[in-house]
Amino acid sequence: MDFPKRVYTQDEVRRARSLIERGYRHRLRVVGSPEFKSKVKEALKLIEKAGRYDFLRRNIRAIVEIDGLSQLREAEASIWMNRYAVEDPLEAAGFIIQKAWQMDAYLKGMIYYGHLGETAAVNARLNFLKELKAKSRDPKVREECERRLRLWEESRLL
What we know:
By secondary structure, the chain is α/β, with parallel strands linked by helices. The chain has six helices and four strands. A hairpin with a 4-residue loop joins strand 3 (about 70-75) and strand 4 (about 80).
């Protein structure tokens, strides 16, 4: 059985969830300019280092360059990102993981939007930073993960 072209109706969501539960993984495609593809690949390397690449492939079919707002496209199982969203590989990786978590929640019928969904998605992003910090051997990556975790913690206190 093939993965549905759209993941919009209840039947399509049910079929997609069933395939994923049986081990289906997308062959992740990156669509865009050569510069965009290169920057996304840098972010994907960080996602792999953190051990989250399988999670990403389970939920996201494509990452597509656009000129507008970066966002999850649930019906397409894709993430639309503009060139500014991929400038910093670590920031891009966190955004990709956050949107992959939201797609996972969408497929499971959980709340993935609004303040509850966004809070849980940000927590998934923070967990990604913690995992990357723990698994990376590069001191610069570990240091940057620590810095961003501190920034997120400080913003919670405001």
